[in-house]
Amino acid sequence: MSVPAVALPDTSSLRTDYKAAKAALLERFRTATNVDALMRALARLTDDTLRRAWQACELPDALTLAAVGGFGRGELAPHSDVDILVLLPDDPPHVEARIERFIGLAWDLGLELGSSVRTVSQCVEEAANDVTVRTSLLEARFITGSASLFDDFSHCYHAALDPRAFFQAKVLEMRQRHAKFQDTPYALEPNVKESPGGLRDLQLILWITQAAGFGSSWRELDQRGLITGREARELRRNERFLKSLRARLHVVSGRRQDILVFDLQTPVAESFGYRASGARRASEQLMRRYYWAAKAVTQLSTILIQNIEAQLFPKTSGITRVLSDHFVEKQGMLEIASDDVFQREPHAILEAFLLYEKTPGVKGLSARTLRALYNARDAMDQHWRRDAENRRLFMEILKAPEGITHAMRLMNQTSVLGRYLLNFRRIVGQMQHDLYHVYTVDQHILMVLRNLRRFAVPEHAHEYPFCSQLIANFERPWVLYVAALFHDIAKGRGGDHSTLGMADARRFCREHGIEGDDAALVVWLVQHHLTMSHVAQKQDTSDPEVIRRFAELVGSERRLTALYLLTVADIRGTSPKVWNNWKGKLLEDLYRATLAVLGGARPDAHSELKSRQEEALALLRLETVPEHAHRALWDQLDVGYFLRHDAADIAWQTRVLYRHVQAEAPVVRARPSPIGEALQVLVYLKDRPDLFAGICAYFDRNGLSVLDARVSTTKHGYALDNFLVAYTEGDVHYRDIANLVEQELTARLATPGTLLPEPSKGRLSRLSRTFPITPRVDLRADERGQYYILSVSANDRPGLLYSIARVLAEHRVGVHAARINTLGERVEDVFLLDGHGLSDNRLQIQVETELLRAIAV
């Protein structure tokens, strides 16, 4: 039978009542701490509002309104979606218009509704085909309407539910979700709901146990024996924190917001009562608490899922093999022989990771082992750390031929690493707001260790063949792993972390029997782990004196090789965006030049000049360039040009320019860079003061980031400039854009007076806006007084390089070379400037002042 449509009654009072009641609840939450009470109160308020709206739309008694999803659990975050199900009988009345009005009214009231309208049979069919629907309906809760229809739905749904299939689908779904977040709870902007160790992991466990009939609360799982009382309390405590964090994130942002973005970390931290103190921001204190919670959730959920799986899929086979007096292998997992083994034999704690590392076929620790480790934290005390056998075991783990990365990561996940190395425990979950690192300190250290290990694995030799070649011939590579563990371990203590880390490394070596040259190398590497990147990226490595000083500092080939390998691993372990082939070439060139000096070669500019010229001539002969054609160009070039370019670049530029030495029109040539994903651009024309800035302006306006610039001025007054440029994002075929760059830049350079448009200050990234750094400018003469070195440090943004170049052009300061060094969201650029005029102190101060103004946010 049909139900006649009726006009929608006046619901303004309903809207007013709901908004006022919700605002009062949220205001109370700002000063209260009971997040469960808030979420239950919001759910009750929403229930009551929906009932009133249902009645206002005069929906018939034969229909049912049910809450599903998180709303079905009887709890609601401040700005979460409200998921409902309208259940229809098999022969429903014609009420489509009334249902549409009800849903529209709910939206008008301010409820962000997620709705579905189905019969019982449709619900069962949809649940069978879609695990998301199956999950949402699992927690369905009656609100109003026909209770008997809801009971029919509940009976049919649970009768069709297969707990084993549901378990498998949800675990697969969890793995896919974790993969989207790189399988780590340590993202700097985590999703507190979806990230590994977040609320979704806890909800998933309770969904699985509810579907299997094991219980729907931590207390019930404790009573069933799936977890211990202590584990249940830990889960409940961390669940309460994560719920509170999500609720406060909603309240502070004023919307549904589950990602703890940098902009909101400080206000959310302050809403918890955290305050900045000393060296720690309020946001850092909050994030540290979050990471510890996510870590505990990850550990305990792993235990629970294994225990649930054991009950749902009981194995007929037991022990696969006995591994030692303390451990057996059970279905590919390392299992303790008795529950109290770690209390009776604390040495077995590290033995577990050594066996995990060394035993083929063992892919993880069993739930029983993980639980025993979790409950053995009190056994990992000062006596345990100082025990000689434990120190031997730890060194054996580090010296193992394979499995080191997996073992160390697992030791960190289970908190064993931080309890063995107390200073490591201090940097677990510690954020780094340097706009360079995208990992917490502990994750960065383990990433550097992983990178060093990959150099030594034949399967990865194609990634960095030179590093793989060096480490294959490096005696006792475990020394590098020790240095990796300690290179950043003193971050966040205040002071120079390299110097503080030296003391930690020295103490570790003394306590673990590392002596002589090996101990000295570890300590030296920790002290100087930033030195090689600084020299390669900020100093003029074409200057023989720079190479000589670096060689004196290094002192031996073993130290040079160790520092090179650690530097490459360190830079690669900061952020996927920081490493590029150009930085790799800078480091490798510095390594080879220093190695030659250490081998007895004299850092002599004349011999280096002759060597490069001869090599370049050999390449030119292969290109069928006439025998003496190079002379017209080379006679106009100074020694600095040949020292700043390698032989391949000299040959390419000569081949392009030997016919155009006296050209009146600009010559621009571009080619894909021989060293990686970038475009190499050669510019040759009569020099003028605004030239460098004008070229930078072109690159900036076209979205090309300058990676390197090598600027030369010939004896007859021509500029010969070489740029390495790249797009910061996207998959670009540089061969396809080379001709376009040549044509556009040639046209721009051929029209004087158009080179210096007003700089447009590009928008800072969100990370840079949240954590701005103080811009710095340093201008000083080099040791010989021939050039001036300009160092600039600032937040990266579009147009920054052009802003700098424009100031220099306006003061007619020539640029001889530029080393553009982008470190994540920060730039550390170094320019070699013409010293003419800069000896005037007033001009120096004016240039520095204007540069600071130009790079300021």
From TrEMBL:
What are the names of the required cofactors?
A: Mg(2+)
Can you tell me where the transmembrane regions are? none
InterPro entries annotated for this entry?
A: ACT-like_dom_sf, ACT_dom, HD/PDEase_dom, HD_domain, NT_sf, PII_UdlTrfase/GS_AdlTrfase, Polymerase_NTP_transf_dom, UTase/UR
Record text on activity regulation? Uridylyltransferase (UTase) activity is inhibited by glutamine, while glutamine activates uridylyl-removing (UR) activity.
What does it catalyze?
[protein-PII]-uridylyl-L-tyrosine + H2O = [protein-PII]-L-tyrosine + UMP + H(+); [protein-PII]-L-tyrosine + UTP = [protein-PII]-uridylyl-L-tyrosine + diphosphate
Task: Specify whether Ribosomal protein is a keyword of the entry.
Answer: no
Q: Where is this region: Uridylyltransferase?
A: 1-322
Keywords of the record: Hydrolase, Magnesium, Multifunctional enzyme, Nucleotidyltransferase, Repeat, Transferase
Q: Does the keyword Nucleotidyltransferase apply?
A: yes
Supply the PROSITE patterns for this chain: ACT, HD
> Domain of life, per the record?
Bacteria
Which residues belong to any copy of the HD domain?
441-563
Which intervals hold domain ACT?
Answer: 680-762, 789-857
- Give its E.C. classification number: 2.7.7.59, 3.1.4.-
SMART domains listed in its UniProt record = HDc (SM00471)
Q: Which family does it belong to?
A: Belongs to the GlnD family.
| Record's function text | Modifies, by uridylylation and deuridylylation, the PII regulatory proteins (GlnB and homologs), in response to the nitrogen status of the cell that GlnD senses through the glutamine level. Under low glutamine levels, catalyzes the conversion of the PII proteins and UTP to PII-UMP and PPi, while under higher glutamine levels, GlnD hydrolyzes PII-UMP to PII and UMP (deuridylylation). Thus, controls uridylylation state and activity of the PII proteins, and plays an important role in the regulation of nitrogen metabolism.
Alphabetized HAMAP family for the sequence? PII_uridylyl_transf
Q: What is known of its domains?
A: Has four distinct domains: an N-terminal nucleotidyltransferase (NT) domain responsible for UTase activity, a central HD domain that encodes UR activity, and two C-terminal ACT domains that seem to have a role in glutamine sensing.
Q: What is this protein called?
A: Bifunctional uridylyltransferase/uridylyl-removing enzyme
Gene expressing this chain = glnD
